[in-house]
Amino acid sequence: MKASKHPYYFLFVKLAQLLVCLIIVILEITSYVAWSNYVDELNSSKFYPQLNIDKSVYFKKQPLPTDKSITYNGQVKIWYYIVVVTTLLGAIVYVSNYKWLWNHALRLILMELFFFALWFSSGVANFDPWYSGPGLRCDLIQTNHKHLELTKLAELAQLQCNTDVASISFGWINVGLYVISLLIARKRSSELDWTNVRTYNNSQDSEENDSPRDSRRQSRGSRTFNLRNNGGNRPVFF
């Protein structure tokens, strides 16, 4: 099945990438709201009177206020948001220049490589909690505490953890989708190359076919001219 005959398949993959990106936006908003509520509850809790956490910690790299041995890297979130916003802006470029990009495979491949690199790098960066942070084992968060305040804090922490895991998962789904769109773009590039080769060969064949006719025409004209002028002062026409 030729990609050139089915550009809507490629467009479908791009729309799927956009949909995944919007889902990630919703998950990240939910995660931040859960974090914000968690901080409000923690700052007003009687169990941690010495703590006063600033919500900007969400975007910073520093030890956790509740456990200094664990480092939380919020800078990963900033890069993640840059990737998401860039993808949303890129979707506008795709929609407005889709036909042009489809017929310029090199630029199409370069754009696909660019966005693949963005999502792959953000996906690797989002693994930071596993190898240098608190981890993403949401099942380890106990929510059945005797105290209502602790239960609420645990539920908010679990909600944030679950949304972060879901966001990371959808991020890697987008990486896979960009692999697919990159393969389609590569196939499109090959088809355009072969189309150009066939067009060039056809034009060469056409020129070669026309050449003998032109030469025969020229030789016939020269023979007529010589015939008419052969014989000195005899009339040209009889």
The amount of beta strand, in percent, is: under 5%
What's the helical proportion of residues?
over 70%
Class from secondary-structure proportions: mainly alpha
- Spatial order of strands in the largest sheet: 1-2
Number of domains: 1
H/I helix tally: 6
Mean pLDDT: 78
What low-confidence regions span 5 or more consecutive residues with pLDDT below 50? 197-202, 221-238
How far apart are the first and last residues' alpha carbons, in Å?
68 Å
Order of helices and strands: HEEHHHHH
Q: Any idea what the shape is?
A: elongated
**Biggest pleated-sheet summary:** 2 strands, antiparallel
- Strands, total number: 2
Over the alpha carbons, how many angstroms does the gyration radius reach? 34 Å
Q: Topology, please?
A:
Elements: H1 7-43, E1 61-64, E2 67-73, H2 75-96, H3 98-102, H4 105-125, H5 128-131, H6 148-229
Antiparallel strand pairs: 1-2
Helix pairs in contact: 1-2, 1-6, 2-4, 4-6
TL;DR of this structure?
The chain is mainly alpha-helical.
Task: Describe what you observe in this structure.
The protein has 6 helices and 2 strands; from the N terminus they run H-E-E-H-H-H-H-H. With 238 residues, it is mainly α. The protein has one domain. It has a two-stranded antiparallel ribbon. Helix 1 runs antiparallel to helix 6. The longest helix has 82 residues, at 148-229. It is elongated and about 70 Å long. The chain starts with 6 loop residues before the first helix and ends in a 9-residue tail after the last helix. Mean pLDDT is 78; it is low at 197-202 and 221-238.
